[in-house]
Design brief:
The structure holds three protein chains of three kinds. By secondary structure, chain A is mainly beta. Chain A has helices at residues 38-48, 178-182; strands at 2-3, 9-10, 52-56, 63-64, 70-71, 76-77, 81-84, 87-96, 110-117, 124-128, 141-146, 159-164. Chain B is built from 13 helices and eleven strands. In chain B, strands 1, 2, 3, 4, 5, 6, 7, 8, 9, 10 and 11 form an eleven-stranded mixed sheet that branches. The two termini of chain B are 16 Å apart. In chain B, β10 and β11 (346-353) form a beta hairpin. In chain C, 35% of the residues lie in helices and 18% in strands. In chain C, the strands form two sheets. Chain C has a nine-stranded mixed sheet. The radius of gyration of chain C is 19 Å and the shape is globular. Classes of the chains: A mainly beta, B alpha/beta, C alpha/beta.
Chain lengths: 197, 355, 389
């Protein structure tokens, strides 16, 4: 084949009239053998005991979950582990009407939510069940529903989902990513968001 | 051109990172490079990194690594899906514009969870070559055979390159293969893995990362007693099709060298040392010829990429190793080289000087 | 020694037709089509190009690692410098900015820059759903990530529920005037947009972007090249990039500081103090309809919580709006991910060159190009104008 300046492709005589090859299928398979990092290993092992571990920043005390060993705002390493309760609130959520590729047993629609555990500075993802999807709210209080004890493994999937506790909601202005700064003594000075908008 | 220098470096390479993620690897390195010249991220004008999703086995993998920088308040930042040497080039360009005076460059690779020789097959033409899945060492062996059979280089010479790398790497904490005792006869006695390439002809794979701080003009002089001034930097690419190239040559390496050396106002024979990113001994032999290194220049005093080849970082590591020799006063003029793609397809050359 | 920032101009633009599958061309054929059109528009040959800057989204989308290596032959790169940029969804914009920096820094005189995606070559859902070892996978696609942020915007701004549908309907109407657009739904009605199934509540199917094959290229040149051009060129008045971390305490996901900082920087460079009055046309990255009012506020075209009013009043419509947004149909009508940001930048340039055809804004003198990526954390923006700055 030769490309003409106008971008049109002209076939040599021997290929004219032949059915063009428009696609080739070349399956790709690559295997990766992951090892958990030391911090991920602690996190996963704790799940087997129905414990949730976070990392406390040495800079401002903010607790991160999952514990990735770094405070992303300050770019410093974190090694201090703290136990977090299995209660918190819905910081934000999505009602999804599409199945997840490769995940079985999940009926649509389902609610995925940023769960902000009490004492954590950021949210992490979880499913919310135990109430109609149109009753899920930003600020709704929730607690973890764990697998039966004899099915626990070293996996975040030990938490089946989160269900409403029935406690009063966290107000919108203190829900989600606002919760950490709202709990600080000099709240509002450094949120980078609402304060100067 | 505006004067720009490497003022600080930090690097770490090991055979396999088992306890740390990429972001955990980079946190101490980035902090060490900045702290070496008393800077925090707030003092950095531009940040640029290099990495590969195919190594991480995850799309958008670099997004998590941004956490290592401390990117809030927001930073002026970019990323290349290339070796960190090209991220350094982008940062050097940014400094040329004259609006910022400092830059942070970093890159990393953790290839140990996968099979690098198979992953690299996916760099090849997706319709005609990649479906055949030739491992990277087999592709390099095609080139090595052409080199040997054309009589340009002898098998003995390749073994000598391997030995020099392993001996130079002794004492380098970031080398993963070194030996003070290995001989040419030892290497020649190894069974080939991709004939004619033997284990010692292939770079030792490593996991690791590298961080570099650049500064311009007087800012560089304030930050560092003896900055490694980038006097010339250039990069070029050759054709991809292995059948369309003379594999015994790397014209883009020669071209990149002539660009960098001319900008530096130097000649190659005036260089004290050259750090070459050669994934195989045969490729190092080609590079020595293309760059015109005549024996008066010390090649790969660190052991080079043969002693530790961190995919996506090995080129930036070469720049850091060469710059360190200038910063510590051990050399006046140095060349660093980075490569990418099969059989030395793409090449970058950076010429640095102390004075 | 100080170096003056060199003036930069867009000399040529080339786009492919955007559609779900370009089965008639290889990846190389696709990028070459856009590049040849950009060169022709600039009145240049391959030999006139000093360097090439390529951008695209994750390599897994085509299953080729660092495909710029393979594309070097098709793009006339042999013997030239090539850079490959990847900054998530903003990559098309960032790529253009890296290319511009090569001219602004005085390194090169003429640079070809190109963004592409050929999603039909692989399976993007697979590429984005590779199992992550240490987390639970419950977010089905990008919509699952952005839907909560949109919900938060709706809650705090008090926007009426159908604002997103209005944006989607407007962009699909605009797309009918762009021959390159992927979605060209001639008979689409507003009611159909509203009645489309909910995917990620509050995001309807009709409010999401398609998945496209396509490439977009630009030829950028220095001041001498811009002055010498026989046809109209677009002069670059400002360029800015910003990034921030993905998840940290106090982060404002609805209106990220990186977005606000980036906009402030680019307008400062362009000498613009009242963006709504001084910009004539906007091409912004809106993969989900609600991002139009959100970005209008964040960038400074509207007051906080008032972006939706511009949508409601029709201010962003090509017909009769004072600030037309996404006259090309936007990302909602064509989305070859790695090119989507560059299309925004290129369409902005076409507008100030007066070459946008049926979707031209009459008398456009200054245009704004915008892209974002990641978890709304990577931003690239430029301002281009008909006059030399």
């Amino acid at each position: 084949m030769s490309g003409a300046p106008d971008g049109e492709v002209r076939l040599p005589a021997s290929l004219r009239g032949v059915e063009p090859v428009q696609s080739v299928r070349t399956p790709i398979r690559l295997e990766y053998d992951y090892r958990p990092s030391a911090s991920a290993e602690s996190y996963l092992r704790a799940y087997a005991d129905k414990r949730i571990i976070g990392h406390r920043s040495p800079v401002d005390g903010a607790v991160f979950i999952p514990p990735r060993g770094v405070d992303p705002r300050h770019g410093v390493a974190i090694s201090e582990e703290v136990d977090l309760p299995d209660t918190g609130h819905v910081g934000n959520f999505c009602v999804t009407h599409l199945p997840i590729p490769g995940r079985k047993g999940l009926e649509v629609p389902y609610v995925s939510a940023w769960i902000h555990l009490d004492g954590a500075a950021v949210g992490f993802l979880g499913l919310v069940r135990g109430c109609p999807t149109d009753e899920v709210r930003i600020g709704m209080r929730v607690r973890a529903v764990w697998k039966p004890d004899d099915e626990l493994g070293t996996t975040a999937e030990n938490i089946l989902h989160w269900e409403p506790t029935g406690e009063p909601d966290v107000p919108l202005e203190r829900a989600g990513n606002r919760s950490f700064h709202a709990s600080q003594p000099d709240a509002g000075g450094d949120t980078g968001g609402e304060a100067d908008a | 051109m505006r004067e720009v220098a490497v003022v600080a470096t930090a690097l770490h390479q090991v055979p396999a990172l088992t306890d740390t993620t990429e972001v955990q690897l980079m946190v101490p390195l980035i902090n060490a490079a900045r702290a070496a010249v008393g800077l925090t991220q707030a003092d950095i004008g531009f940040t640029c990194s290099g990495s590969s999703d195919f190594l991480a086995g995850q799309a958008f993998s670099f997004v998590q690594t941004l956490d290592a920088v401390g990117a809030f308040p927001p930073i002026c930042e970019s990323h290349v899906e290339m070796d960190g040497a090209f991220a350094l080039y982008e940062a050097w360009v940014k400094l040329q514009i004259g609006e910022v005076d400092t830059a942070l460059v970093f890159s990393y690779g953790k290839s140990s969870p996968g099979s690098l020789r198979d992953v690299l097959a996916l760099q090849l033409d997706p319709y005609f070559l990649a479906p055949l899945w030739p491992p990277a060492d087999a592709v390099a062996a095609l080139q090595a055979r052409l080199l040997l059979e054309s009589g340009l280089v002898g098998a003995q010479e390749l073994a000598e390159i391997a030995v020099r790398s392993q001996r130079n790497a002794v004492g380098n904490p970031n080398a993963v293969r070194s030996s003070s005792k290995v001989t040419v006869a030892d290497v020649m006695a190894e069974a080939p893995v991709a004939d004619p390439l033997r284990p010692s002809d292939l770079a030792a794979e490593s996991d690791g990362g590298c961080a570099v701080v650049l500064a311009a003009g007087d800012r560089a002089r304030e930050l560092c007693g003896r900055p490694a001034w980038i006097r010339g930097i250039g990069h070029r690419i050759d054709a991809h099709g292995l059948g369309t190239r003379d594999l015994t040559r790397a014209p883009s390496a020669e071209l990149a060298t002539s660009v960098a050396v001319a900008a530096a106002g130097l000649t190659v024979d005036s260089l004290d040392l050259a750090e070459l990113h050669s994934p195989t001994t045969s490729q190092e032999a080609i590079l020595v010829r293309e760059l015109g290194l005549d024996g008066s220049t010390e090649v790969n005093p660190s052991g080079g990429a043969l002693a530790a080849n961190t995919m996506m970082a090995a080129g930036l590591v070469r720049i850091a190793e060469a710059a360190d020799r200038i910063i510590d006063g051990g050399a006046d003029r140095a060349l660093a080289h980075a490569t990418s793609g099969p059989c030395l397809q793409q090449n970058l050359v950076c010429v640095m000087a102390g004075g | 020694m100080t170096v003056a920032k060199q003036r930069t101009a867009v000399l040529g633009v080339g786009q492919t037709k955007y559609q779900s599958t370009r089965g008639d061309v290889s990846m190389a054929g696709l990028v070459r089509e856009a590049a040849l059109r950009a060169l022709a528009d600039a009145g240049m040959e391959w030999a006139d190009v000093d360097a090439v800057v390529i951008g695209k989204a994750p390599d897994f989308f085509e299953g080729v690692m660092m495909p710029e290596l393979y594309l070097a032959d098709a793009l006339g790169c042999v013997g030239k410098p090539v850079l490959r940029v990847h900054t998530a969804g903003s990559v098309g914009g960032s790529t253009a900015l890296v290319a511009a920096s090569l001219i602004q820094g005085g390194i090169h005189r003429r640079v070809l820059t190109l963004g592409f995606e050929k999603q039909s070559e692989s399976n993007a859902t697979w590429a984005l759903s590779l199992p992550q070892p240490f987390s639970v996978s419950i977010n089905a696609g990008a919509g699952g990530y952005f839907s909560p942020i949109i919900r938060q915007y709706m809650a705090r701004s008090g926007a009426p529920e159908l604002i997103g549908c209005m944006v989607a309907f407007k962009d699909r109407q605009h797309a009918l005037r762009n021959p390159y657009a992927h979605l060209r739904q001639h008979d689409l009605t507003f009611d159909q947009v509203v009645e489309a199934p909910m995917l990620w509540d509050p995001i309807r199917y009709s409010e999401t972007c398609p998945s496209s094959d396509g490439a977009c290229a630009m030829v950028l040149g220095d001041e001498v090249s811009g002055d010498a051009a026989t046809g109209p060129v677009a002069w670059v008045h400002g360029t800015a990039m910003r990034s921030e971390a993905n998840n940290f305490p106090g982060r404002d996901e609805v209106n990220p500081q990186a977005s606000r900082d980036c906009a402030a920087d680019v307008f400062r460079q362009a000498g613009i103090s009242d963006p709504r009055a001084e910009i004539d046309v906007v091409e912004m990255y809106v993969p989900f309809s609600w991002y139009e009012p959100m970005w209008l506020e964040s960038i400074g075209f509207a007051e906080r919580d008032a972006g939706w009013r511009m949508v409601e009043e029709g201010a962003t419509h090509l017909d009769g709006g004072d600030l037309p947004v996404n006259c090309s149909g936007g990302v909602l009508s064509s989305n070859p991910i790695g090119a989507s940001g560059m299309i925004r930048f290129a369409e902005a340039a076409l507008q100030v060159r007066g070459m946008a055809g049926d979707h031209q804004v009459d008398g456009a003198r200054r245009a704004f190009g915008h892209a974002y990526g990641g978890g709304a954390q990577y931003f690239a923006m430029w301002v281009v104008g008909a006059e030399k700055p």
